[in-house]
Amino acid sequence: MPWELVAVGFAGSLHCLGMCGGFALALDRPSKGLARRVLAQAAFLLGKACTYVLLGALVGIAGGAFVRSGVVASARAVLAVVAGTLMVVAGLQIAGFLRELPLSRFFAPTSAYGRAVHAVAEARGPAAPFAMGALTGLLPCPLVWSFLVAALGTGSVLAAMGTMAVLGLTSMPALVLVVATGAIVSPLVRRRAVRVAGVVVVLLGVVTFLRGVAPHLAHRLLPHVGMS
Amino acid sequence: MSVAPGPAAEPFCDHCGLPAGRARHERLLDGALRRFCCVGCGIAWRLGRGAGGEGGSESASFLARVGLGVVGSMLVMLVAWVPYLDPSAATDEYRRFAPWATLAAATPVVLVLGVPYLWNAVAGLRRGRVGADLLVGLGIAAAFVASVVSLAAGRPDALYLDTAAGLATLVTVGRWIEASAKEHAARRLRELLSDAERPAQRLAPGAGIADPGRPERVRASALAVGDRVLVRPGERVPADGVVEEGRALLDEAALTGEPLPRAVAPGAAVAAPAIPTDGPLVVRTTAVGGDTRIGAVAAVLAKARAERTPVERLADRASAAFVPAVVVVAAFVLVRALLGGEDAAAASLHALSVLVIACPCALGIAVPLAVTAALGRLAERGVLVRSGLALAGLPRVRVVAFDKTGTLTEGRPDVERVETVGGATPQAVLALAAAVEASSEHAIARSLVAAARRERVEVPRALDVHVVAGRGVEGTVLRADGATTRVRVGSAAWIGGDDDGGRTTTVIVEADGAAVGRVRLSDRLRRDARAAVDGLRREGLSLAILSGDAEGAVAEAARALDVAAPDARAGCLPAEKVEAVAELRRRHAGPVAFVGDGLNDAPALAAADLGIAVGSGTDLARETADVSLLGEDLTRLPGVFRVARRTRRAALLNLFWAFVYNAVGVVWAVVAPMPPVFAALAMVVSSLCVIAASAHLRSVLPDDLAPRGPSAPTGGVAIPGSRPLG
Fold first, then answer.
1. Which of A120, A161, B14, B575 is 20 to 30 A from B390, alpha carbon to alpha carbon?
2. CA–CA distance from B43 to each of B50, B112, B431 (Å)?
3. Is B506 helix (H, G, I), strand (E, B) or coil?
4. Is A12 an interface residue toward B (CB < 8 Å)?
5. CB of B458 closer than 8 Å to CB of B431
6. B92-109 helix and B132-152 helix, angle to the nearest 10 degrees
7. B436: Cβ–Cβ under 8 A, 6 or more apart, which residues?
8. Which of B696, B693, B669, B690 is nearest to B680 (CA)?
9. How far from each other are the two terminal CA atoms of chain A, in whole angstroms?
């Protein structure tokens, strides 16, 4: 079990609160019975986790294919270097030292994504919260990206899916808390937690990078990171 | 996603509370500037405010199910593929775990997506109806139950969970496409209506264009009747109202399809969502929200889509016969395979593929899609077809009968010429007539005054004016030299003089007891009447004129438009127009369309096989017309018939191909076993073909409804014999 990722997931989920928490709250219908509300939130979180796992499978397939193709003899090392570099970038973004990528037009209200979100927000039935969760999982979030590059670095489909499942699971408690208490943890606390998560991701990125160029040193630093 | 932290004054995201940073997104929402750190927060904020839209739509619910279905089906497929994608993962442990993972992923899909089909099928059966839902429901249930049974029996090799989940997902994709295509027709209008959610600028009392103060930004839907709003150039008029201040060219294409902007000044009525193009307006609202003209349009369109056309009923009958037949065929396939010694699993799969490929989904959407495409295209051009039934009726029309006054003609008398008696000049005669008529509101009075103004005739003052009902006006005119003249202006019957048999309206002008001139007024043909009539002829339609006017005036118009004598009837009272329509129907042995201005022609519009109202969208909600031309442009008429004809052809063709496709599919599935998921895919492809055909129809429908051929409407069409005043 990559405990470092679990830690990043928990700390980073305080960041999710602001954004994904809004989606979760938007789905909540206080007029409905408790059981329905709990089921809806469970479906939402499940949908998000499923998207993460599917995304993980995609990068896992890519990474695994690259490793098995034999094009580069040290394919795993190359993957580790690429993943490590990207993780550092994503970690800096999470911590707030780098600007967000200009992706807004892909997620603007008039884009296919924005229209789908608005449609699903209006939809009724048990599929709606799940679908909303699945869409939320696609939002451009550096935390997701850092997990995805970690998943890429594993070079294996199952391990990649597992890495992303960690993200899906660790982000659940915070979101449940938000909906249950209706309160979002103070921005100040969240900003600090997010910065810690970012720094941890940067460090993980450095270690992953080192695993590509200097495996022994990396192993001594952090034996579990990105293990396939 | 926070961005680099800045100084203390840095704004925070309005949604998540993290620093918004320099790359923030700023949006004007609910009348205030909101800052968000990222796109997601912007979306989430609006969702939280419930400003998402106008309530759940059918397609939205299908889309949510599609989301669940796609994710679930992908997970199911993934579980099956992992051993191939990653050989190191193909352990025994994985093989034991895989069937249960598949079941976990497939079950929600089957329950949420599949079960509703079964419920619908059961509800349909109770009412004695057999629909496509039965095939789909049976297929999904059979595949799922068979899988669960074999899993429980410890035979994880006979799993059709991918079939069950894939089938449910693909069918739901088809339903989603169908639902969103149905909603597409009204989309443009909904966009216009959603402008009701855009901010309007309400002015404080006393504020005007010169000094607008700080207009209050409110949603258009929050406006009340009597509010004063400021509309800047390029903004949309938020509600129907009257211009109180400002002059502008108003672009009304969104409502009427009229391409040319109209000049408006204080006092003019304006309707949402018109756009002033060159100057600001202050509008006092008279109708808001659903009471506006565009609101009435949307209501009519919503109703139009709900009605079923004859071709649709044909499709219903076809699928009602088709579904039981397919169930029988599938049962036959199952029994034959079992008797033939085939494995029960293989036999049921074979039967399943027959059930699935036969789903007559494409059959169900073949016609509505073509109809909605046409309704949408016509609505864009300001032609409102009240129902799919009306659209289906258009191609059968043989005769188009026109009301004359106000439909083919301008609807108001215009001074055609002034004839003088004795030594008076035409200008002097017009001056006298205009002087006594100046204060009158009668149509003839107004055109006399307008003619005087047009001819730059100095109109003297008149005293002691009074109206003699039904006859004319008399009064005393103060001449420039101080003398007074007793003037009477009125009909020949009152004053004495000749008439010209009703071709024109003649007004006699008498000064001090002696006739000094005659003013002939006629109702001119509209500029586009000739082009419209020629266009309709090219569409193979016969033309008729039914008018309440005098013989002479109708004959004049009939001559100008080449309408033969028996088809041009004068002096018809509203009830006689109804008889005339029936007579036309008999003589031409075909349905009659009546084109009127929708006010005095209501009986004829209702009596005709197809009523077409021109102009005045104000009475839209209570009009009896099947088709309403918003705005004045008559030249759109031939295009309406052309669109209807193409739509009918496309609908029948869609229906034919959908039927052939399904029939071929069934035969194929019976003869050559195929995996049920392929059958489901084939079914979705057939739906997509129909949708593509309808999209194509939309693109080939004439964009411009102007008539084909060289005679584009240019210049006015003058009635022979008319000449300018002088």
1. B575
2. 11, 27, 68
3. strand
4. no
5. yes
6. 150
7. B462, B465, B473, B474, B475, B477, B487, B488, B489
8. B669
9. 10
Residues in CB range of B312: below 8 A, 6 or more apart: B367, B368, B371, B388
Question: In B591-675, which ranges are continuous DSSP H helix?
Answer: 602-607, 636-671
| Rg of chain B in Å (alpha carbons) | 35
Query: How far, CA to CA in Å, does B337 sit from each of B340, B342, B349?
Result: 5, 5, 10
Give the number of domains in chain A. 1
Q: Cβ–Cβ of B45/A22 closer than 8 Å?
A: yes
Q: Is residue A103 in a domain?
A: yes
Q: Is residue A228 situated within a structural domain?
A: no
Dist CA A87 CA A203 (whole Å): 9
Report the distance separating Cα B557 and Cα B408, nearest Å: 8
Residue A202 lies in a domain: yes
Tokens standing for residue B388? 């799919």
Please report, in tens digits, the pLDDT of each residue of chain A (228 residues total).
467 778 777 777 766 665 666 666 666 666 667 777 778 888 888 999 999 999 999 998 888 888 877 776 677 788 888 888 888 887 887 777 776 666 656 666 667 787 788 788 777 778 888 998 898 888 777 788 888 888 888 878 888 899 899 988 888 887 777 666 655 566 677 677 777 778 888 888 888 788 777 766 766 666 554 443
Interface check A130 vs B, CB under 8 A: yes
Q: What is the 3-state secondary structure (H, E, C) of B370-392?
A: HHHHHHHHHHHCCEEECCHHHHH
- Residue type present at position B103: L
* Structure-token pair, residue B307: 């009605």
Q: Considering only alpha carbons, which residue of chain B is nearest residue A95? A: B2
Q: In terms of Cα–Cα distance, which of B325, B362, B328, B355 is closest to B136?
A: B355
HSE, side-chain direction, 13 A CA sphere, residue A83? 32
Q: Considering the domain boundaries, does residue A127 fall inside one?
A: yes
CB contact under 8 A, A141 and B44: no
| Neighbouring C-beta atoms of residue A40, cutoff 10 Å | 22
Q: pTM (2 decimals)?
A: 0.58
In degrees, to the nearest 5, what angle opens at C-alpha A59 toward C-alphas A54 and A61?
90
What residues make up the domain containing A42? 3-221
Residue written as token pair 């006017």: B549
Interface test with B, best of A122, A190, A227 (most B CBs within 10 A): A122
